[in-house]
Amino acid sequence: MDWEWDTKEWIVDKNVENLQSCTQIVDAARFLRDGETVAFPTETVYGLGANALSDEAVGKIFIAKGRPSDNPLIVHIAEKEQLREIVASLPEKATPLIEAFWPGPLTLILPKTDKVASLVTAGLDTVGVRMPDHPIALALIKQAGVPVAAPSANRSGRPSPTTAQHVLTDLSGRIAGVIDGGATGVGVESTVLDVTVDPPLICRPGGITREQLEAVVGEVRLDPAFLVDAAETPRSPGMKYAHYAPEGEMWLIQGEDSQVKEQMRIMLAEAKRQGRKTGVIATEESLSYWERQPEADVVLSVGSGAELGQVAQQLYGVLRQFDEDHVQFIVGPTFPRSGIGMAVMNRLEKASGGRILSV
């Protein structure tokens, strides 16, 4: 396909008063109403939006991203009243979750209406919906006057974008426009929770933790396989295909700290012997150690290992920086799977293609 878009950029200060009526938001919303694709910031990552009620508009998302059409999308709304248009009914446990976590990084899988474009749901009778906690996203959706389907604004399989420049690196010329609202906050995508079943089922861990959910609605189950069999139809984004991957080969090493470091050094040395440029995912605590090791060509910190919220926020930027530095072989540690660490490890496992070595 020939790409003819001169991708438009709108720079918007999220602290501006009356965001919904500012010229850039009005212009970008017009693009959405006209059936085009617009990338915009949320509190998690940048999303690539299109009118969720139009198959023609939504189809442009799949083309731009190179995304398989059997991978469902999340619909973003700005007001609870918009649920009536896209959701057939609200399961009992949906209401307290909406009250507790919207706007915020929680996507609820709900029964859909026939108004939702079929491409959004990949043929399912449910739809994932969330209300983003970002003033630009909310202003854009309100001004557009339509619910907005929006996966992450990156080429399919690549690390998700946390800045407008990440979006342009992947999609310039492939989308109509991008709103530059600065860096995002949470860093990993929303938690996806299926409330059409009881107990509710986490289909993708994310910015709202299992512990937070259970404090509101009691027992919440984990999907037994975030990486599902290729023959299955995924119930939510992020379940079926490889995601978040840097271009270089990536390994995660699991075990006691000194043994992990020794194994990483052995693997880095072998990669250098093969002539490959090497990289290390470090924590703030291990940064000085790795910067002294000759086996590591590029050492990047994802933040403190004791503050997994920092790791979540910085992870995608680090993976993209390895690509910018043309790193061909990457090693990193694993992290505890409690709290937001579950989301961090889910993304790392997918980024590494499941290459985890226990020592």
TrEMBL record:
Q: Where is the YrdC-like domain?
A: 22-208
List the EC numbers from the record.
Answer: 2.7.7.87
UniProt keyword Cytoplasm, yes or no: yes
Q: Where is the signal peptide?
A: none
Q: Where can this protein be found?
A: Cytoplasm
Q: Which branch of life, at top level?
A: Bacteria
PROSITE patterns attached here? Answer: YRDC (PS51163)
Against Gene3D superfamilies, the record matches this protein to: DHBP synthase (3.90.870.10), Threonylcarbamoyl-AMP synthase, C-terminal domain (3.40.50.11030)
Which SUPFAM superfamilies does its entry note? YrdC/RibB
> Which terms does the UniProt entry file under GO BP?
regulation of translational fidelity; tRNA processing
One cellular component GO annotation, for this chain's record?
Answer: cytoplasm
Q: Where does L-threonine bind?
A: 44, 76, 130, 150, 190
Sequence similarity? Belongs to the SUA5 family.
Stored NCBIfam families: L-threonylcarbamoyladenylate synthase
* Official protein name in the record: Threonylcarbamoyl-AMP synthase
